[in-house]
């Protein structure tokens, strides 16, 4: 059973790395506060389409990674 979980954990790890690299750079939005980009500071910017899918998939795979890692630790 542990071997199967280890393989699943490896696959999830590779998928997580790929999804994180696909995500947009959200740190550049923080720089607009300093440079005076106040028009987007309080505006609601929603993720849409592929960006929303990647964000949600990253959260699900991250939770699965934590749960499987915890299960392997407790075995």
Q: Would you write up a description of this structure?
A:
This protein has 75 residues and is an all-alpha fold. The protein has one domain (2-74). Helix content is 75%, strand content 0%. The chain has helices at 2-22, 27-35, 49-74. The longest helix is centred in the C-terminal third of the chain and has 26 residues, at 49-74.
Question: Which structural class should the secondary elements be placed in?
Answer: mainly alpha
Number of DSSP strands? Answer: 0
Largest sheet report = none
Radius of gyration, in Å, reads: 17 Å
- H/E element sequence: HHH
Question: Regions with pLDDT < 50 over 5+ consecutive residues?
Answer: none
Shape by Cα distribution: elongated
Average pLDDT, all residues: 83
Quickly count the helices. 3
Span between termini: 10 Å
Q: Approximately how much helix is present in the residues?
A: over 70%
Relative strand content: under 5%
Number of spatially distinct domains: 1
